[in-house]
Design a protein that fits this description.
With 441 residues, this protein is an alpha+beta fold. Helix content is 45%, strand content 20%. A hairpin with a 2-residue loop joins strand 9 and strand 10.
Length: 441
Amino acid sequence: MAAGHSIDGARWRAMFEQAMARIAGRFSRVEPRATARAYLLGLLSHAERKNCWHLAEQAGHARPGPMQRLLRCARWDADAVRDDIRAYAVEHLGAQGAVLIVDETGFVKKGRASAGVQRQYTGTAGRIENSQVGVFLAYATSRGRTLIDRRLYLPEQSWCSDPGRRQAAGIPETMQFQTKPRLAWEMIATALDAGVETPWVTGDEAYGQDPQLRAALEARGTGYVMAVACSTRVRINSGRTTMRADTVAERLPASAWQRHSAGNGAKGPRYYDWAWIHIGTDGHRHLLVRRNRTSGELAFYLCWSPAAVTLAELVRVAGVRWSVEECFQAAKGQVGLDHYQVRNWTSWHRHITLAMLALAFLTALAADAAPDRPIDPHHPARGSDPITLTVPEIRRLLVVALIPPAVTAARLLHWSTWRRRHQATARRSHYRQRSTDQLTG
């Protein structure tokens, strides 16, 4: 069979059972364990939406109650399952040169009851929206990348200082305000303490600008390539001169720039011009500058490593940072990371954790099905050969290997009736509330 076309339904089923066996001990009772299995299969299915109603319909349940109880009040520890996901990812994707990536993504919501929601900027919408923001940690190697940890950001004024609102959303009293870089460091430290072997951490400006995060990484002996603003001031000339990063870049001679690929994109290697400058008094500390070959736009990174490294290695790590966006795209588009309809703190973490497990499973299948030798982008395979299996393609194929056949007409009618009755009840409630507001307004 052609390279990148290794499809073995029996092996995929076995790998799914192994993934479920890894987390089975986190559920003390049979019912939530079985519901978690059905929930995960639903996330991997072609269900239109990956919320409790649609997942219950996909699983053949008569009501969404079991799925809702799984997220809200069943006894299981989402953080323990998170630990299992991290170990699972390292087991299936582990390779030299692994990189941890910190980034955030937004979940646009309506209303003000969902834990952590407020009007805030989110890159998901590209503007200020009423949304929740989750800070995530991704694990990336040459074998694949996936999300391995998550934290829900709690805004300081609108949530942390409002006990009544916190209680209504089920936010534990122990949860206090923490900046996004602080949340990122907690996840990194947890991964390192768990034995994840990675020489590098990377992140965008929101995290690279935080000196405490950079100092914490250095104290752990973990290298970093962190994006920073052009206005960042650095010390050059063995620490004797302080200058803005963009000013340093302007004064570089033409000979300082080297062409390197920041990794492969959809259309092949992504080439940029790069320069690096020693900063401070530490020989292992650099300012890395990337220049777009077409527009001339510059990007800046502060870099530190416990040992000497090459420019090519710093470029590789800087390029890996973009793979976290691929993780978010796959998690939202393939396994419903953002399809939840829950407001409670515990429910949010549970849904997100199970979606992360579904993504890690798909990524493990992709790594397992990949050819033994990486494909050289400069010498692609013959035109008749398929590309390696991708996460979206594997999810499509899983319908045959794992997911039960399509629901019957009777089941579809049952759920249609259920939804319309529920919607009628909700409509009456809204109408009554609106009438009351108009009379008292």
